[in-house]
Amino acid sequence: MEDTIYLASSQHKLWSFTPESLSSVRKATNAAAAAQVREAIMRAREKKMMNGGVVKSGNSNGMVDSDIGTPADGSGNGNGVGADGLALGPDEKEIECLTAEEELKLVRYYCRKIMDIATVFEFPTNIKATAPTFLRRFFTRTSPMTYHPKTLLTTILYLTTKTENHYIHLKDFSSKIPKSSPEEILAPEFVVAMGLRWCFEVKHPFRGLEGAIMELVKVSEGKYIHPTHPTTSDPQETNTFNPPTPAEWQAKLHNLPPLPTSPHLPPKPRIERAHGKARSILSGPVLLTDAYFLFTPPQIYLSSIYLVDPPLAHFFLDLKHPYPHQSSLLQTLKSIIESCAEEVRKGGEPGAQISKEEMDEVKRIDRKLYFCRNPEKVDLVGVSKQAKRGVTEDEESGTGGNGEAERREREVKKRKLEREKSFREGEELFGSQTK
Amino acid sequence: MSRARGVAQPMPVMERRERVDEDEICPVCKSSRYLNPNMKFLINECYHKMCESCVDRIFTLGPANCPVVGCPKVLRKAKFKKQTFEDIAIEREVDIRKRVHKVFNKRPSDFDTLKQYNDYLEEVESLTFNLIHGIDLAETEKKLSAYESLNKSSIAANAALAASEAAAFTHNQELERQSIIAARQAAAQEIEDEKREAKEAKKDMVRALAHAKDEDEAKRIVAESEKKIALKRSSARRKEEEAKLKAAQGMAGIKASLLAGSRRQRMDEEEDTGPFDPLGGYTDKSKYFVVDSSYDIPWLADLPNRQDILSGGYFVEEYYQRCLFEAFSGLSIIPEDAPGSDISMAD
User: What are the residue boundaries of the Cyclin C-terminal domain, all occurrences included (chain A) (predicted)?
Assistant: First the structure.
C-alpha cells in the first residue's frame, strides 16, 4: 500500500533516475546549453559590432553575498568592464564551455550556499532540505551556463518558503539579503517553477526516520507488535511460520553486535544516538549528493542509520521482513541500503566546512563560467518583464533604458484615451447627441 | 454514441434550422404541406424521406432507384413505412436493432453461467454498434449471416417460444380484462336489484299499513320491514365480499401464471466465492506496521497539557500514522526501476 502511493508521486515519476540515466540527462543538458550559449554569444557579438560599441547594462542583477571572487561582482566596477570583458576576452579564441562534471560541482557548491542562507533565516528543516533539492532538480535539466545558480538562490529559497507553507513577507525576506530587491527575487520565479516541472512536493526522509525510531524504541521496550496482515500469496506459510515474539525481538536487539566506538551502550541510548546522528546526516551531507534522485526516502534514512550504526539498520530490516519468503527481498534491500550509504558518503561529514581544494576548484569553474554564460539570460529582471509585457526582442532592441520611458509614455497615452472615452460616454448617456 | 457516423450510404444531414422546412416540403417533388394538408412522409431502407404521392408516382410500376441524388438503393413500394421517431438516425438504429435481435434471440436460460450470457450480450452489442456506425460493415454482415445459418434451429425455436409467450401474455391480458368487465357488470346489476327490492319492500309496507287495524299493528309492520331490509343488506354485503374474494383469487391466478414464465429462467450462478469485496482485496492496512496508541517521543511528552495545540484539532495519532507510513512508503522500490530516464529538456 505504501509503495503504491509513493509510485504515484511526482518525485518517483519525474525525479527518479538510475545513475546512468541521471548522468546521460546531465550530459544532454550540458550539450544543449553549450550549443545555445555559443549561438547567443555570437549573436551578442554581431549586435555589438552593429551598435558600434554601445554597452548594454550587464550584471546589475542580484548577487548573493558570496565569498568567491568572481569577476562579475568581485572586481568592484562590475558593470561596464563585465560587459566589455564578455565581448573582448573570447573574441579571438573559441568559446570554452563547462563540462557536465564542472556544472555538477558548481551546483553542489550552491547547494551549500542555499542551506547557509536558510540557516541565517532560521528556517525549519524541511525548507533547508527542500531548497537544495529544488536547486539540484532545476539544474539537472537546465545548465548553469544558461542561468547562473547564484542569481537563482534567493528565488528558489523564497519559492521554497511558499511551497513548504512557511510564509515570510517578500520585503522582510529581501531586506535580510544584501544587494537584492523584491523584483530580482521574483523575476526568475516562473522560469524556476517551470524548470521544476511544477512539482513542488519533495518527499523527505525525516518523518520516516522518526517512524523507524518509534518502532525501534517499541522493540527495546518489548512492546513491538508485528502486523497480522497476510504478507504472502501463500497463506500456508503465514499459518505455519510464527514470527518472533516481542520478547524475542527485544532480546535480539539487546544482543546486537556492539559498536566499535562505544561498546557498552544499552539499546535505548544506542537508538537515540543513531537517531541524532542519522538526522544530522539527513539534514546535511545527503542534500549535497544525488541520493534524492537515485533512492527513495526510506532507503535514504535507512542508509543514514546504516552509516552510524550498521547492525541497527540491518536489525530494522530483519524486523520488518521476518518471513522466510521475504529473504530475497531482504537481501536486495540490504544491498540497496549499502549502495545508498556509498552515495551519501560522498556528501562528507555532517557539519564539515568546504575543503580548500573544493573551494579552489569552484573558483576556477566560476571564472571559466564567466566567459561562457548565455548573455541573453543575464538580465533576468529585464527578461521577465519582457515576457510579461509580451514585447518582442526586436521592438526592444537598442533602446536599453529608453524602453522603460517609452513604455510609461504609452501607458499615459492609453489612460488619457480611456478617460476621454468614458467622459464622452457619460455625456451621451442622456442623449445630448440627439440631432 | 456521439461518434462520427461513418455510414456507407449518404444520410440526410439534419440541422435544426432546416428541420421546419423539411417537415413541410417533400424533398423529391418540392410540394409543400401548405398546399396539401394531408401530405404524409414515408421512408424506406435508405431513410430518405418523401411524400406519399411521390411514392405512388415512382414505385407503383415496380422497384425503382431512390430519387435522391447519389443514393444507389433500389426501393420497393411495399417496404415504405411511416417514420416513428423524429430523428432519422434513431429510426435507423431501432430498425437495425430489431434486425439483429431477430437473429440473436438467445435467452439467459440458454447459458450455463451468467458470465457467458453477459459475454454473449456484449458480442451482440458490439455487432450492433458496428452495424449502426458502419464499422467493418462487410465483415459484420458476414458474421451475422454465418451465425444465422449456424443457429437456424435454435433461432427458430426461440422465436417460436417468444411468439407463444407473447400469445400467452395477450391471452392472459384478455382474461384479466374480461374478468374486470364481468365484475363491473355484476356490481351494476346488484345495485339495480337492491334499488328494485327496496322499492318493492316500501310498496309492500304501505299496502300492509293501509290494511292495518290499529296503531300497534302498524308499528309492528314498520319494525318488521326495517328488520328485513337490514337482513338483506348484510346478506348483500356478504355476497359482495365473496365476489371480491373470488375476483382477487382469479387475479392472483393470472399473475402467478404470468410470473411463472420469467421465474422459470432462473440460472445457476457461478460458484460462490465468499462475500463480495468491492476493492478486490485492496486494504488500507499496512503489511509493515500497526499504529500503537502511544509512543515514547520526548518532544511530544508535554502534548497532553498543550491546550493551545490540541484545541486546534491536532491528533497525535495522525502524526504517528504519518511517521510510520513515510517510514515505509517506497522502501521496496528498486532503484533500477526509476522512470525519470527520458532525456527531454526543460529549456
Answer: 204-342
- Count CA within 13 A, CB hemisphere, residue A213: 25
B142 within a domain of the structure (yes/no): yes
Nearest C-alpha of chain B: how many angstroms from A76?
32
User: Is some CB atom of chain B closer than 8 A to the CB atom of A33?
Assistant: yes
Query: Chains A, B: CB contacts under 8 A, how many?
Result: 162
Sort out which chain A residues have CB atoms less than 8 A from B296's CB and list them.
Answer: 217, 221
Mean pLDDT, rounded, of chain A: 82
Q: How many angstroms separate the Cα of A374 from the Cα of each of A97, A103, B310?
A: 11, 14, 54
ipTM rounded to 2 decimals: 0.77
On average, the pLDDT of chain B sits at 80
- Domain of B189, in residue numbers: 168-263
Give ∠ CA B258-B259-B264 in degrees, rounded to 5. Answer: 115
- Tell which CATH classification among 1.10.1740.10, 3.20.20.210, 2.60.40.10, 1.10.472.10 matches the domain A43-202+362-370: 1.10.472.10
A201 touches chain B (CB under 8 A): no
Does residue B157 belong to any structural domain of this protein? Answer: no
SS3 at position B64: strand
Establish if B334 belongs to a structural domain: no
Q: Other CB atoms closer than 10 Å to residue A174's CB: what's the count?
A: 20
Over residues B55-91, the pLDDT tens digits come to: 888 888 888 888 888 888 888 888 888 888 888 888 8
Q: How close is the nearest chain B Cα to the Cα of A6, in Å?
A: 5
> Which among A131, A159, A138, A185 has a CA at the least distance from the CA of A33?
A138
Same domain (yes/no): B95, B113: yes
Contacts of A39 in chain B (CB under 8 A): none
pLDDT at A80: 37
Q: Which residue of A has its CA nearest to B295?
A: A214
pLDDT for the residue A210:
94
Q: Is A327 on the interface with B (CB under 8 A)?
A: no
Q: Which chain A residue has its CA at the smallest distance from B331's CA?
A: A298
pLDDT surpassing 60 at residue B21? no
Residues in chain A predicted with pLDDT less than 70, given as ranges, are 52-94, 229-239, 390-404, 426-435
